[in-house]
Each structure stands twice: as C-alpha cells, then as structure tokens.
C-alpha cells in the first residue's frame, strides 16, 4: 500500500511562517498559469515533520488530469543518489573498497585510454596512467561522458556509439558498460569533474558485487525496507493513469508533449542506475528522511551515520568547488561554492554560491526539472517534482531554495 502523504504539523511548530510558505505556491502557480510548466508538487519538511505540501496544475495537459499527491514522476538523475547509497551499503559489508579499480568488477575497464586530440572518427588516445576507481565513479571524476552534453569530441563518440537517446533498449547493462569502456576517457581519472554515465557504471558494479540484478537489489535492499512502494524502473499497467506525462520545452520554454509510448510499462533490459527510476513525492521523501536521520528510518537502517556523513562531504581534491574543478556543462544553478561528495552536490560556501543555503547541504536534481535537497544544519528536506525537459529551462531550483528559506523564521 502506498504511503499516504499529508502535512503532519503546524508549520510554526517547526519554525516556519505558514503565510510565507504559501509564497512558494503563488510563485510556481504562475509557472502553470502562464504556460511554463504543466504542473508540479512540492514538499517541505523539517525535523521529520511535513510542514508544507502542495500540488498545482496538470499531470497530463491533454486530459486535464491534475497533479495529485500520489502522482508518479520520472525522477531521472535523482536516481543517482539511490544507486550511490546501494554502493555504500556494499562498501559497509566489505564487498568493495572505494579505492578498488572498477576492473575488479568490470574487466573491460582494465585498459582504459584517454583522449588527446583528433576527430570522433579518428581520435588520438593514450593509455590512462591511473585506473578508474569506485570513488572516481561516485564523484564523477572518472573521465566518462554523457552523449547529450555535446561539448566535447568524446561526447560525440558516445553518440556515434549509439547513446544519443539514452541506453539502447536491446542491450543489457553489462553490454552497455563494456561499450563505454571501449571509448576514451575525457581526462586522466581524478583530475577533473565531468557529469557522466558514471552512476550507470556503478549500477553494474552493484550487480557484480552483490550477485543481484540492479532492480532486484534496489527493491529488496532499499525500497521495500524503507516502504518506498511506488519506486521502480517501470510501473504496473494499473498505475498508468497516475504517471505524469513528459514534456519538452519549446523555444519559448513552454511544454510540448513527448511521445514515450508505453515505455514506462516495460521493465528495461538495462536498468539505469543513473536516471531510470519512477517515483512519488511520498517515496522520495522517505529516502531523504533516511539520509537526514543518518541512514535510518522507522527502525530500518541502510547505512551507518558516519557513512552518510562521509558521503555528503566535498570529495573534490583540495576542497575545490565544481566551478574550479568541473568541466563547463549546462546547469541551472551556480557551481561556485559547491563541491561534490559520493553521489551528491554539497554546498561548501553559501556566499560564493550566491543563494540561501546552509554549509553542508547536499542535493541533486533530475533532467525533467525535478529537485531535492537535504539540509542537516536546519534539519530540512525539500522535494520538487514536475516533468519538463531539460531542467535548465527555468530557474526553478534557485527560486525554490530562496522561497523555502525566506519562510524559515525561528
């Protein structure tokens, strides 16, 4: 049975001004009313209590179906923190080390090469001096790429290899990861940050280290124990009406329907640990509460508190931020003052970040403009769900942050 989602406290009891919280609703209702978003849901909690919960607009514009508290959303890269938690569960069991070469689990990673120059059709490469390690994958410092970024020759090589539209549906995860291993790295592992397919590779590591397919591991070890009953790589036909329609932004930033057919009803041959999950606000809220509580929720412990604290520290060399250490990629929020941990962006310097935030806040978002963050200092978690591609279309995440923190008055 799905978790019933509802406000669980008077906002004032956890330090929020209720009238100021309603500014969130007015602000994002305008996004729907003037046609910038189809619909959305936002959840704000503090100290384990849901202080604000609202939904507005349509989950499907064609049918006028509203966003409801149990609406299913494609969370895309909000899958990555979940896969990273799975890896760290295996780490805690002694089944892998962060310094392990990935080739221990995926032999095709044994002899990686680094791009030096030349076109995608005839690149000049050299042997990598450093093996790709587990911590490189967790921090996106492995030198892997994403086809959709389209800023480097290696990105073009990913598209030429068949990854321009996500994961090829006819290949399993092992085959896909082996194809990535055959492509050159953008840089020597550990020397730069580049957003990439690294977390999908981690999904294959989960399979190799645990002996379970990724979807089974996540279901049996994370979703079922946490009561995340609506989170999976596909949905049942009976739940199809709850799934929000997917939209692309046109040149004016207005939603245009994406025809994805019945893809969500079919379990994928290769589950994407980097971006394949479908979930609800209730389920992802439970995931964020587990993190906020140091790896435990309702008597179920997935991780030790020291592991969560370690994951959510900045792991970039020398304490660098993404603005200094990362390759330039599209982003709807500032990378200044933001480091990267083991599966999460981490706010290191709110002043450089140029936005209201606490030092130590960790977060990430999804391609369809979804977002979440966990603020341990203020004991706040926030989940925002919608379905508009790409996430850089509107400044939703920065505006949401300022609207949440201006309502905090204790």
Automatic annotation (TrEMBL):
Domain Beta-lactamase-related, residue spans: 24-403
Pfam families reported for this sequence: Beta-lactamase
Cross-referenced SUPFAM superfamilies: beta-lactamase/transpeptidase-like (SSF56601)
InterPro entries linked to this entry: Beta-lactam-related, Beta-lactam/transpept-like, Diverse_Enzym_Activities
Signal peptide: none
The protein's name in its UniProt record: CubicO group peptidase (Beta-lactamase class C family)
Organism whose genome encodes this protein: Thermocatellispora tengchongensis
């Amino acid at each position: 049975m799905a978790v019933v989602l509802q406000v669980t406290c008077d906002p004032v009891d956890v330090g929020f001004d209720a009238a100021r919280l309603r500014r969130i609703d007015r602000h994002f209702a305008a996004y729907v009313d003037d046609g910038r978003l189809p619909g959305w849901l936002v959840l704000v909690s503090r100290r384990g209590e849901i202080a604000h919960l609202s939904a507005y607009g349509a989950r499907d514009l064609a049918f006028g179906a509203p966003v409801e508290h149990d609406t299913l959303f494609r969370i895309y890269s909000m899958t990555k923190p979940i896969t990273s938690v799975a890896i760290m569960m295996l780490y805690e069991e002694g089944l892998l080390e962060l310094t392990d070469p990935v080739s221990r689990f995926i032999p095709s990673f044994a002899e990686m090469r680094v791009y030096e120059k030349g076109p995608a059709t005839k690149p000049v490469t050299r042997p990598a001096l450093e093996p790709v390690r587990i911590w490189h994958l967790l921090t996106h410092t492995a030198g892997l790429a994403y086809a959709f970024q389209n800023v480097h020759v290696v990105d073009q090589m990913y598209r030429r290899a068949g990854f321009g539209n996500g994961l090829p549906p006819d290949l399993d995860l092992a085959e896909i990861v082996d194809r990535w291993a055959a492509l050159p790295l953008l840089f020597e592992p550990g020397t730069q940050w580049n957003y990439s397919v690294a977390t999908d590779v981690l999904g294959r590591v989960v399979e190799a280290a645990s002996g379970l397919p990724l979807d089974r591991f996540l279901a049996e070890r994370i979703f079922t124990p946490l009561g995340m009953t609506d989170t999976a790589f596909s949905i049942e036909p009976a739940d199809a009406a709850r799934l929000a329609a997917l939209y692309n932004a046109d040149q004016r930033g207005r939603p245009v329907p994406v025809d994805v057919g019945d893809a969500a009803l079919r379990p994928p041959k290769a589950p994407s640990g980097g971006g394949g999950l479908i979930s609800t606000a209730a389920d992802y809220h439970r995931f964020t509460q587990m993190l906020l509580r140091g790896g435990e929720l309702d008597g179920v412990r997935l991780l030790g508190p020291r592991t969560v604290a370690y994951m959510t520290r900045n792991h970039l060399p020398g304490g660098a931020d993404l603005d200094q250490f990362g390759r330039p990629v599209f982003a709807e929020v500032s990378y200044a003052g933001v480091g990267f941990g083991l599966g999460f962006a981490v706010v290191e310097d709110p002043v450089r970040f140029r936005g209201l935030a606490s030092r130590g806040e960790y977060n990430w978002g999804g391609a369809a403009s979804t977002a979440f963050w966990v603020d341990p200092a203020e004991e706040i978690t926030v989940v925002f769900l919608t379905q508009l591609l790409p996430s850089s279309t509107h400044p939703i995440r920065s505006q949401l942050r300022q609207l949440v923190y201006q309502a905090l008055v204790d």
